[in-house]
Design goal:
This protein has about 400 residues and is of the alpha+beta class. The protein folds into two domains: about 210 residues, no CATH class; about 110 residues, no CATH class. About 55% of the residues lie in helices and about 5% in strands. The protein is built from 19 helices and six strands. The strands form two sheets. It has a four-stranded mixed β-sheet, with helices on one face. A hairpin with a 7-residue loop joins strand 1 and strand 2. Helix 1 runs parallel beside helix 4. The longest helix has 27 residues.
Length: about 400
């Protein structure tokens, strides 16, 4: 038992009331729910155990709260007073312009008036803002003293008075900071030497905590997170075809195992296009950037992990080269390669917009319900055509190429 157990209990109560709204507001996104939070926390423990009790409470809370910003209706955003400076001060230089653009001509994140807005327009335009901004929305929802339904105000009402002093303010500040920094666009170097403590005389490094949270979050890429796809795939496809890739390839990941300083992505398929999807999208596009980011911080603590992919009947391959893919998802460059293939299939030309990339098309072909409904060719045909007839492999790192060629 810890003196902080009541805090964790109330934080989980708060989360359970809010987090279900994520999949209500954004049903086309991969699942962001309590099951996801529990798995993220387990990955955290596997990454950095043994762990001090306060760091445990902090990161457990962060695992449960890191996505709550996506559960807040966009009509409420202005009330959180999220200023442009609040966000940009933590953003990497190369991402500054992209995030500045999200604010338009405003100095704060403006609420969205949903009156008269078509559902599809809301999803296509504003859900993307929510997805990029949710770490900072989550942080303000945690720490705001002005917003009535913030975590801070909730805890002050529900915790014993003895836990609501200065220490609670410091703990909430630590928690909000770690949560906002779980964005892979944030610059952890700014927090590398920032240590904080609240209830115990134990300093927690903010950069290390944030790196661990973001890595654990991105490692939750298994089939457990894509259970709803069978029910929702038609809805998702009609709403936003670009979201299919965020679901489909997770089906082919059985588990992520962390042992002996190795993070192992275990797939359940030997199909070349399915392995390619996992390798190039889930690992190359998602996991890799948070993996590199965490290793950059972990080296200060002499923590080192290899990153590997395990394929049935094949070897376990260690992946060390960045990037796994170079410009394979660069729309303009790859449409030149893909166009001749699309023109061979009338159905593909009807379904896919010009801006869809190789990964988007591969994802739809790997989704059997959609492929069957649209009478699309097998994904093997598509991948083999690109493999044999185009310069696709030029865009893939030598390591990724070796894995795919061995399977082929």
């Amino acid at each position: 038992m810890s003196v902080l157990d009541p805090i964790l209990k109330e934080i989980r109560n708060y989360c359970s009331k809010i987090i279900p709204f994520v999949n209500t507001i954004f049903p086309h996104y991969a699942e962001h729910n309590e099951s996801h939070a529990k798995r993220v926390y387990q990955y955290i423990i596997n990454l950095i155990e043994p762990i001090h009790v306060e760091e445990d409470i902090l990161l457990s809370s962060a695992a449960y709260l890191h996505d709550i910003g996506m559960a807040l209706m966009p009509t409420e955003w202005s009330k959180l007073r999220i200023t442009k400076n609040y966000v940009l001060k933590d953003i990497k230089p190369e991402k500054q312009e992209e995030y500045s653009h999200l604010f338009g001509d405003k100095e704060y994140l403006e609420s969205i008036d949903l009156k008269g807005l078509r559902l599809k327009d809301f999803y296509l335009k504003h859900s993307k803002i929510a997805r990029k901004m949710h770490p900072w929305i989550s942080a303000r929802l945690i720490e705001s003293t002005d917003y009535e339904n913030s975590l801070y105000n909730y805890l002050r009402e529900n915790l014993p008075k003895g836990l609501c002093g200065t220490e609670l303010k410091v703990f909430i500040k630590m928690l909000a900071t770690v949560v906002k920094l779980h964005s892979s666009s944030s610059n952890l170097d700014n927090y590398r030497n920032r240590n904080m403590c609240a209830y115990y005389d134990y300093e927690i490094n903010i950069a290390k905590a944030a790196a661990t949270l973001s890595l654990a979050d991105t490692l939750d890429c298994t089939k457990e997170r894509a259970k709803s796809l069978e029910l929702l795939c038609e809805f998702i496809a009609k709403l936003d075809m670009l979201q299919i890739k965020h679901w489909v390839f997770k089906r082919f990941v059985d588990k992520v195992d962390i042992r002996e300083n190795n993070i192992i992505i275990e797939v359940n398929t030997v199909s070349l296009p399915e392995v390619a999807g996992v390798l190039l999208f889930e690992v190359g596009k998602n996991i890799y950037k948070d993996y590199i980011r965490s290793q950059n911080i972990y080296k200060d603590y002499k923590i080192e992990y290899a990153l590997s992919i395990k394929i049935p009947s094949y070897n376990t391959y260690t992946i060390t080269e960045a990037p796994l893919l170079k410009d394979i998802v660069d729309k303009e460059k790859n449409m030149v390669n893909i166009k001749p293939y699309i023109e061979k299939y009338e159905e593909l030309r009807k379904i896919f917009a010009e801006e869809l990339s190789f990964i988007d098309i591969l994802a739809v072909l790997c989704e059997p319900t959609l492929a069957r409904e649209k009478n699309l060719p097998p994904p093997e045909d598509f991948f083999n055509y690109l493999y044999m007839k185009t310069s696709l492999m030029e865009y893939i790192s030598p390591e990724a190429r070796k894995i795919l060629e061995e399977i082929a």
